[in-house]
Amino acid sequence: MTTAPTSGTWEVTTFARGRGRQQPTRQGELRSVGSALDVLECFSVDGELGVSDIARRLDIAKSTAHRLLTTLCSRRIVEQNPHTGRYRLGIHLYELGHLAQARSDLRQVALPTMSELSRQTGYVVNLSVPDGADVVYIERLEVGPGSKLLAQSGRRLPSHVTSSGKVIAAYNADADRARREAGFPPRASSTIRSLPEWQSVLDDVRRVGYAHADNESYEGISTVAIPLLDLGQSAYAALSLLGPTERLGPQVPALARLLRSAAQRISRSLGR
Question: What keywords appear on the UniProt entry (predicted)?
């Protein structure tokens, strides 16, 4: 038996056929989905976590955390380390992530150009997109000395600590607004720490057409980035190079010219 939705609320009461057992409401199901996604977010920083760790971070009961982890394990989204008893991201999530990456039109179009940049420069080449106050690297060609540093790093960084984040925010009002609202927590010695500093950097980016970062996400590392712009001149992605500060820093203007030509080729191929 199903009741019609009432104004402002969507609740469905269902009885299992032949059992007379009431099933969870739609709202309850959605809350469980949200809680499961919250659990996955906990692994964005740590490789392995215990039940108590998850419960403490999400402010939920240990029994609830265990139930969520058990469900995720059953779908291979999370797996339990047999030696430590702690949990980590599972192989099926890895598979889904690679499917999402492989099916990205932007990534597929950009890869040949990124490979050419990698051969030309010997630096790490990144392709990133905005996500709220952060940037997410959807492809990274790791070569040269900078690749060792990135081996264990994640694919998400706050936009104010990266050249990619700066150059996207300079040409994308939503990305700029999200970073301003999130603030400017320090990460390295030269990280932007205030709104006036952020505004000054974006003004400079718009003036020269590219962004660079020195010792802002990692000490001893510099990056330079160019935006990928749509027909309305709004940034939907960024292309960047990363390497040791002492080597890449003096080459920033020349590298920016290479990146600009590459970004234009990618955008033309995408019809943007």
Answer: DNA-binding, Glycerol metabolism, Transcription, Transcription regulation
Closest CA to 53 of 78, 74, 32, 75: 78
d(CA 159, CA 162): 6
Token code pair at residue 83? 């030696």
Please, what is the end-to-end C-alpha distance for the chain in angstroms? 50
Which residues, in sequence order, are CB contacts of 105 under 8 Å at separation 6+? 270
C-alpha torsion sign, points 147, 148, 153, 157: negative
Q: Domains in the chain, start-ordered, CATH in brackets? A: 1-98 (1.10.10.10), 104-270 (3.30.450.40)
Q: Render pLDDT for 97-156 as a digit per residue (tens, 0 to 9).
A: 767 766 668 988 999 999 999 999 999 999 999 999 999 999 999 876 655 655 555 688
Report how far residue 35's alpha carbon sits from residue 222's, in angstroms, rounded to the nearest whole number.
Answer: 38
Is 157 within 8 Å of 184 (Cβ atoms)? no
Q: Which two tokens stand for residue 188?
A: 């390295």
Look at strands 211-214 and 221-229 and give their pairing: antiparallel
The CA distance from 251 to 139, in Å, is: 23
